[in-house]
Amino acid sequence: MSSFASVRSQAVSLETQASGLLSKYSSYALSTSSEATGEETKLEKKIEQTLHKSEEVLDSLSRISDSTPSLPTVKLQQLTRHKEILQDNWRQFGKIRSTILSERNKINLLFNVQSSIDDRKNRPVDEMDYTNEESQRANALNNIADDLISRAYETRDNLLAQRSTLQSAGTRLTNTLSTIPGVNVLISKINTRRKRDALILATLIAVCIVLLFFTW
């Protein structure tokens, strides 16, 4: 029992030490530099050593537990709790390290982009290359404008041709109708009959309205 208690005291001491180291290590996630400092690297190694040492101590406790059948249940519960704390410390250590690496990558990416922009601004401009690039852009725009103008002319010619075709067809139709005997008379009679039917229908509607008005 004394052996279990003495080994467990080491586990508690290592847990307290790991908690303090992780708290200090988490501060690097708030103010990350572009590169890891020597102090940060030493702190990472110390945390890993402390956690590995905790694993060894807990292994010792497990062996004591296995070799002591009469070990009280409360001791077994303490051993289980120490293992859970160790797992939580490993997870917290990995999470903090991932956060630091992510922030450092962002800083380095922004630094590289800014450096590229500064280099482009400070790079001397070759007047000949600039003139050639502008000339190429102007030629490309001119080609596009010429293509649009040519398409516009083609569209206009097609519309004129269609209008001429419709006018010619209308003239031929008029001439054809005028050559057929009685066509104009027939069309005139159809229009007259249509007007007469419309007049009769309108008169009938008016009479119905008047009758309804007097019968009401």
UniProtKB/TrEMBL annotation:
Record-level Gene Ontology MF annotations: SNAP receptor activity
GO biological process: endoplasmic reticulum to Golgi vesicle-mediated transport; inter-Golgi cisterna vesicle-mediated transport; protein transport; vesicle fusion
Subcellular location: Golgi apparatus membrane
Alphabetical keyword list: ER-Golgi transport, Golgi apparatus, Membrane, Protein transport, Receptor, Transmembrane, Transmembrane helix, Transport
Family note: Belongs to the GOSR1 family.
Subunit structure: Component of several multiprotein Golgi SNARE complexes.
Record-given protein name: Golgi SNAP receptor complex member 1
Protein's organism: Cyberlindnera jadinii (strain ATCC 18201 / CBS 1600 / BCRC 20928 / JCM 3617 / NBRC 0987 / NRRL Y-1542)
Gene name tied to this protein: GOS1
